[in-house]
Amino acid sequence: MSKQFVRILVAFFALSLFTSAAFAQAATKAPATKSSRTSKSKLVDINSASKDALDALPGIGAAYSQKIIDGRPYNSKHDLVSRNIIPQATYDSIKGQIIAHRGAGKKPGSKGSTLATPK
Fold this sequence. Notes:
The chain is mainly alpha-helical. 50% of the residues lie in helices and 3% in strands. The chain has a two-stranded parallel ribbon with strand order 1-2. The relative contact order is 0.11.
């Protein structure tokens, strides 16, 4: 009878160990998925954001925010790296927080526009 009791006790211990590990993993994964996602309303548009909004991004200071503004417009957010506006490491830290939204049409007189400007 003591061998049977030990077997039951070991089985109960193993079951409780696996169950507690599963609950611990579920508890740590839930908050991580919420904080890692950024809603579209919180994304910073690099084509229209103010200097202050760009400064608020991690790793972007006054110099980088001015370079971003001077380099507008961007077709994609990866243009920041391909045009050597910011380093890859800085881009990697902010790529989930930015977007490069282009307007539907170009303004008259802007580069590439076929409309004539009034004289």
